[in-house]
Amino acid sequence: MTQNVSPPRDSAPKVPSAGEQPAWRAVLFRADVRTLSLLGVLAVLILIGGLTKPDQFLDTRNLQLVLTQASVIGVVTVGMTFVIISGGIDLSVGAIVALASVWATTVATQEYGFAGILFTAVLVGLGCGLVNGVLIAYGGMVPFIATLAMLASARGLALQITDGRTQIVTVDSVLDLGERDAYVLGIPPLVLVFAAVTVVGWLVLNRTTFGRRSVAVGGNAEAARLAGIDVRRQRLYLYLLSGLCCGIAAFLLIVLAGSGQNTNGNLYELDAIAAAIIGGTLLTGGRGTIVGSVLGVLIFTTITNIFALNNLQTDVQQIAKGAIIVAAVLVQRRTASTT
Amino acid sequence: MAPEPPLLSMSGITKSFPGVRALDGVDLDVQAGEVHCLLGQNGAGKSTLIKVLAGAHQPDTGTISWRGEDVTLRSPIAAMRLGIATIYQELDLVEHLSVAENVHLGHEPTTAGFVVRGRAARASTAELLQRLGHPEIDPGRLVGDLSAAHQQIVSMARALSHDVRLIVMDEPSAALDPDEVDNLFRIVGDLTAAGVAVVYISHRLEEIRRIGDRVTVLKDGRAVARGLPAKSTPTSEVVSLMTGRNVEYVFPPRPDTPRVAAAEPVLTVENLSRRGEFAPLDLQVRPGEIVGLAGLVGSGRSEILETIYGARKPDTGRVLVDGKPLRPGSVRAAVRAGLGLAPEERKAQALLMLESVTRNVSVSSMSRFARAGWIDRGAELGAARAAVRELSLRPDNPDVPVRTLSGGNQQKAVLARWLLRGCRVLLLDEPTRGVDVGARAELYAVVRRLADEGLAVLLVSSEVPEVLGLADRVLVLREGSVVHTAPARELDEHRVLDLVMEGSPAS
């Protein structure tokens, strides 16, 4: 086949940009419709926070706190977004975070210091992801069931390791990461990790073969298989990726809490799924964005913060979250049907 | 039937979707007891029109009158209450329910309002199936276990389980064998004799000649001809109304066969079989050659292609490309060796419907544009654009979503995928299914051109003229066995149908 790309009409001097730019703009514009509405919601929330508790909400420390809290669940959500885009689901993320956080904070692990804790958290996450992935991709198990089983057993194992006790972190280099002295230009290191994971996630999803294959598998697994994609291996990688994100999140949680607990990451799976869904990821797979998911996380965390500042109880928070999920999906359905 | 008002009269129906005016003032009159055929290319508005008629779409403007009274078809239930039933091309049956449960879905016979009377449902279903000439279908069986043809019968039984006065059939013969089509026509005859009107959609003109009374031709959302006599209007006139052209099937000329015969075969299939699907098969395809497999639905054609492609694992035999055997049951091995498949169910098996043309085209050769997994999107777009232009896919902007393309252009997107991959053996399974008449000739020309450029093509089609017109060499299949092999020019449709149906392997 000839690689005759010379466009007859496009008279732009640079050949690659002649094809590239309109596509890029179109993508940006398309993203805008969804993303802008999420940004709008976030702006309204910030406005509400600023109006109800002007001194406390807009305080730098509070904003740092909000972003730090968003970081742990945010990293989990990036992994979850990939899994959902590929047509799967990972119900075990919260349990994996718990298991990784306690395994990485046992007395034995802490002897190896910073590296030992980080390494163990990541390795436990990857290990759980591997089990999920093998069961789903090669064992033919439905993702819902396989990760539900992982949820139960990882939580159980976490309880067994800790015996229900909180494992205090004594490694100073780890604890220091959460201190104000470690902030870079006023930004907590945990938030920087979250930002880095977001950027890498976006690049992987949008610019790599891995991302394309994930979307293809979620959009039409049979077509992907017949197009020559190794669907099973891709699925395995996706659950590994989710496990990796859980491991990183577990480390962030250890820094944040200064301890490891078997109750960590409670209901993270639901928060992560909810954030991805309101961010525009299709639960049936084939479509989704990292930016949307991250905005979803920020929206939820901001709500929690505003409610806490206004002394509203968690029950009200939960009701508000539910309402937001419903509203976001309804709005998306409407915009999807008109575009 | 002149004095009575028509059973159904639609006038000035318009319906727009974002960016598309699907219906632009369509009129349609249907009399009780007639078979009214709806003709038009894909995208002409047939599907939208019948969805309006079924209550699934609301028209923007226009009026619908039913037995002389204006009505609004607010929902499918409203249409059904009037006595309008629709049998869609994609059957809308619940696979995990039984035949009887499907037939009575939504109006189960009940006692005291909630106790479902399964036995009554089964009895009335059996009666309907009897009427439809298929008493052998067990009302208690799961629909998912039935053949496509039988599922269609169930769909029809469901339509008849209501008190129908008008049945819309959207390409009902597409999945049927000739004898099944005869049965379908008998049913249509019975229905019309009982005063039921049938709106019949088909791409096959010869069917319309056989059973149609009047024809309405749609083009670009308008009715360009209404109430033409189905039996006496010349084919050329109908085709030119649909397309603006006077041709139906145009096949590209064949090159000289001696040149082809000299080449070494690129694809060799030895003793390949799958129990219950097809008997041991041997075949060879040379570069530049188009080999056709002709046979009925259920003769094992698609299964053969999918087994060669590695999507199914063979029980015996092997597949060789350039003399090297492929790992059995591995699609990836086949793709790596240079095989490409354009499957029968394009939307379900080939396309990523949410994605752009570019991404659909590049999906099999992504790594070519990637370094360490990183995609060079400029190169990808350029290559996709070149492939799209080479096949004159329209629109030629590869950024548009693939779902907005017509059937023929979607098929071109699939071909472009393999063209871009640099594939050497193309397996085509029903390449013109759902492709309108005008676009077919273009696809045939594309396939022939690809063959002339050195591709080996293995073609499967249920339309005998297509196999005979396009292929160089034809293998005739009957119930999973090759009963005859001959150059296409030595065969005609009659002979092939004889072989397929009578099966005289001795000849």
Keyword list:
heterodimer, A: 339 residues, mainly alpha, two-stranded antiparallel sheet, 15 helices, 2 strands, globular, disordered N terminus, B: 507 residues, alpha/beta, 6-stranded mixed beta sheet, 24 strands, 25% strand, disordered C terminus, transport (chain B), ATP-binding (chain B), Sugar ABC transporter ATP-binding protein (chain B), P-loop_NTPase (chain B), nucleotide-binding (chain B)
Quick synopsis:
The complex is a heterodimer of chains A (339) and B (507). By secondary structure, chain A is an all-alpha fold.
What this model shows, in words?
The complex is a heterodimer of chains A (339) and B (507). Chain A is built from 15 helices and two strands. Chain A has 339 residues and is mostly helical. Chain A has a domain at 70-266 and 282-287. In chain A, helix 1 (15-52) runs parallel beside helix 14 (290-309) and helix 13 runs parallel beside helix 15. The two termini of chain A are 36 Å apart. In chain B, 34% of the residues lie in helices and 25% in strands. A six-stranded mixed β-sheet of chain B has the order 6-9-10-3-11-12, with helices on both faces. Chain B has a six-stranded mixed β-sheet with strand order 18-21-22-15-23-24, sandwiched between helices. In chain B, helix 14 (377-390) packs across helix 15 (407-421). Residues 503-507 of chain B have low confidence and may be disordered. Chains A and B meet through helix 1, helix 10 and helix 11 of A and helix 11, helix 12, strand 20, helix 14 and helix 15 of B.
Sheet/helix structural class of chain B: alpha/beta
Instruction: Give the overall average pLDDT of chain B.
Output: 86
Percent of residues in helices of chain B: 25-40%
Number of strands of chain A: 2
How widely separated are the two ends of chain A?
Answer: 36 Å
Distance from first to last alpha carbon of chain B: 52 Å
Outline the low-pLDDT stretches of chain B: 503-507
Number of alpha- plus pi-helical segments of chain A: 15
State Rg of chain B.
24 Å
**How much of the sequence of chain A is in beta strands?**
under 5%
Largest sheet: number of strands, sense, barrel closure of chain B: 6 strands, mixed
Give the strand content of chain B: 25-35%
Instruction: Give the strand tally of chain B.
Output: 24
Structure class of chain A = mainly alpha
Quick check: average pLDDT of chain A? 88
- Order of neighbouring strands in the sheet with most strands of chain B: 6-9-10-3-11-12
Instruction: Report the biggest beta sheet of chain A as strand number plus sense, adding barrel if it closes.
Output: 2 strands, antiparallel
Shape of chain A: globular
Identify the strand order in the major beta sheet of chain A: 1-2
Shape of chain B: globular
Low-pLDDT parts of chain A are 1-21
